[in-house]
Specification:
heterodimer, A: 290 residues, alpha/beta, Rossmann fold, 2 domains, globular, B: Dna Ligase, domain 1, six-stranded antiparallel β-sheet, six-stranded mixed β-sheet, 18 strands
Chain lengths: 290, 379
């Protein structure tokens, strides 16, 4: 179980012949991900690590059953690639690429909404169901199967905390990197809805950061509907106002963007807040034993 | 990328949004060339990329040429909120009959552009949102393609704007929206949008362009960004995300989230971070050396906390970089390394062979970096 993907999820790689795309295709294949096809315009007919490459997504879906696509193409080409996947009926699109123009992201999300498709990212590490499959660039070996769902705006922080939770013996059901951009597809609330319906997930860890209001929205949802324990950790407490901290979305511009506001919202919703990473597994054990 | 006021005004011109004529100069000597074209009184505005410019003394008035010379001289020798004034804008001082606020920005939650309108122009809109939210209307355009005049008419009706301003307001809003979309703006703001002699015009501009979309806008001016320090610029050129902070412990890592978390840990243990430095994923040895060299140029750093969780990044590359950096720069502050992840066994051996201890636990490493900084502060 877990959310969004499982060991039978069939995957298309857009941008499979690029350096980055082909490297991660190999790592995903090694992990067990069912990659059935790749697309790079102009490179149709090639093979990458045994995976057939097509010029168009249309050809790929005509020749294979495809559940999900992962996009590795450079920023300026992401809109084209994502809309091509959506037009051809792919219902889960994971955009790994960083530096996607905001207007392009808006456009992609508008079409995805119309198609009832799910987009993860852009600028994200992807999704992993430990031991089953990974659709992304995370180091698979630090994730062990278990009962904690993880949601993160940051990639490396997700690896760090997942590793702590895996080592603590609790393990991870699914970890989703939602992305560090101002406009992202799947939000925390949408991801929490999925975790609510996943019997394998017994608790959820939210890894938030400064900027935006997604954690505040998540807190509202937790308060009204979410029934599983939530532990949150926020990065950027010491970030100065008005300065962008690496992620395009990580900038404090108003009061709702601050860690204080986010922590307060989570606590008001009955969630727990960890102040340093090592507290997360300790709090998880405490809330799961109740 | 934030545009200067005058650059925003030039964009407004291209889109047919009226604004008073202006002159731009960068020295008192240039005044003679525009002397005959001026109608006094005039307003003199420092072109710096800071908020609250007026309150910080960046806007002056002059009723004759002598006063103008003085005002220009004063502004060009002044720092506004730490920023050097390189250019000033001179425009006729106008009689404002009425002021509006008009802004278009991005609503992250709704994933759509949002239009913000208020009658209380000229004020800090964020402040107004707190004190008098009923004076502001925000809405998402009915279609993202275009902002329709009826949408503005509806708002004007609700806020009780005078009828005579409605056509011009709708026209300017539609043009500003087109600019916002076509130029990949994250914010396009006119504050105030003023009625002067019965005509609406922009008396200021704030335009921020999406950095990720700059590649498709070669027509846009570069903003001579004074927001970044020289070291931050040097880092940017090397594709390293770097923000200087006022503490004395350098913080370096791979990934924005982990670096922010590392800064927080340093603070948690009683230290003060001197940097946010993100090498990004898959940093090579050379890039890492470059990053450490840039950080080392920053004054007053007592220790460096390097927190590496290698996913895409290979720990042996990082270890080689640290060894090379310390060999090249014997007077560098002590580097406390936390190294875990891909190839960490090789990386740790490289460090051990050079007498450098590598931590596995990031909290222990952060604490150590704080202790070292504390000890060295006394020296």
């Amino acid at each position: 179980m877990g959310i969004l993907v499982n060991k039978n999820t069939t995957v298309l790689i857009q941008g499979i012949t690029g350096r980055y795309g082909s490297y991660h295709t190999r790592l995903m294949l090694d992990y067990g991900t069912k990659i059935v096809a790749g697309v790079t315009p102009g490179k149709g007919g090639l093979e990458v690590h045994g995976v057939p490459v097509y010029d168009t997504v249309e050809e790929a879906v005509n020749n294979h059953d495809i559940d999900a696509s992962i996009i590795f193409v450079p920023g300026p080409f992401v809109k084209d690639a994502a809309l091509e996947a959506l037009k051809n009926g792919i219902k889960l699109v994971v955009i790994i690429t960083e530096h996607v123009p905001v207007n392009d992201a808006l456009h992609i999300m508008e079409v995805a909404r119309r198609q009832c498709a799910t987009v993860i990212g852009p600028n994200c590490p992807g999704i992993i169901n430990p031991g089953e499959t990974k659709l992304g660039i995370m180091p698979g070996h630090v994730f062990k199967k278990g009962k904690v769902g993880i949601l993160s705006r940051s990639g490396t922080l997700m690896y760090e905390i997942s590793s702590l939770i895996s080592d603590s013996g609790l393990g991870v059901s699914t970890a989703v990197g939602l992305g560090g951009d101002p406009i992202i597809g799947m939000t925390m609330v949408e991801a929490l809805r999925r975790f609510q319906c996943d019997p394998e997930t017994e608790a959820v860890v939210i890894l938030g950061e400064i900027g935006g209001s997604s954690e505040i929205d998540a807190a509202q949802y937790i308060k009204s509907e979410f029934s599983k324990p939530v532990v949150a950790y926020f990065a950027g407490r010491t970030a100065p106002k008005g300065k962008r901290m690496g992620h395009a979305g990580a900038i404090v511009s108003g009061e709702a963007d601050t860690i204080e506001a986010k922590e307060k919202a989570i606590k008001n919703a009955g969630g727990r807040v960890a102040h340093i990473p090592s507290e997360i597994p300790l709090i998880l054990k405490e809330v799961l034993e109740k | 990328m934030k545009l200067h006021e005058y650059q925003g005004m030039d964009l407004f011109s291209k889109y047919g949004i009226p604004h008073p004529p202006y002159h731009l100069i960068s020295s008192v000597e240039e005044l003679v060339y525009i002397k005959n074209a001026l109608t006094f009184p005039v307003v003199v505005k420092a072109q710096v990329l800071v908020g609250g410019r007026g309150k910080a003394g960046g806007v002056l008035f002059a009723k004759d040429f002598d006063e103008l010379k003085k005002a220009v001289d004063e502004l060009l020798h002044k720092k506004i909120k730490g920023k050097t004034v390189r250019k000033v804008l001179i425009a006729p001082k106008v009689n404002v009959e009425r002021e509006y606020y008009l802004g278009i920005t991005l609503d992250r939650r709704a994933k759509a552009p949002v239009v913000i309108i208020s009658e209380a122009g000229g004020v800090d809109i964020e402040e107004l949102a707190k004190t008098a939210p009923e004076k502001i209307i925000t809405f998402h355009p009915y279609t993202t393609l275009e902002l329709m005049p009826f949408e503005i008419r509806e708002v004007a009706k609700k806020l009780g704007f005078p009828k005579e301003d409605m056509p011009a307001l709708a026209d300017i809003a539609a043009k500003l929206y087109r600019l916002f979309r076509e130029k990949d703006a994250l914010l396009a703001e006119i504050n105030p949008l003023a009625r002067v002699d019965g005509r609406l015009m922009a008396l200021d501009s704030v335009v921020i362009i999406d950095d990720n979309a700059l590649y498709r806008h070669p027509e846009l001016p570069s903003a001579e960004d004074e927001e970044n320090t020289p070291l931050e610029k040097e880092a940017e050129e090397a594709d390293i995300a770097f923000v200087e902070l006022d503490g004395d412990i350098g913080v370096v890592g791979c990934g924005a989230g982990i670096v922010m978390a590392s800064m927080d840990l340093i603070t948690y243990f009683g230290g003060k971070p001197a940097s946010f430095m993100d090498l990004g994923g898959g940093a090579t040895k050379d890039k890492t050396v470059k990053a450490l060299e840039i950080l080392n140029k920053k004054q007053g750093i007592k220790s460096i906390f390097m927190n590496i969780f290698g996913g895409i990044t290979k720990c042996d590359e990082i270890a080689k970089a640290i060894v090379e950096f310390l060999k090249k720069t014997p007077d560098a502050p002590p580097v406390v390394v936390r190294l875990i992840g891909t190839n960490d066994d090789i990386g740790r051996k490289i460090l051990a062979d050079n007498g450098i201890k590598a931590y596995m636990n990031m909290e222990k490493a952060a604490k150590k970096a704080v202790e070292i900084a504390y000890e060295r502060r006394g020296q």
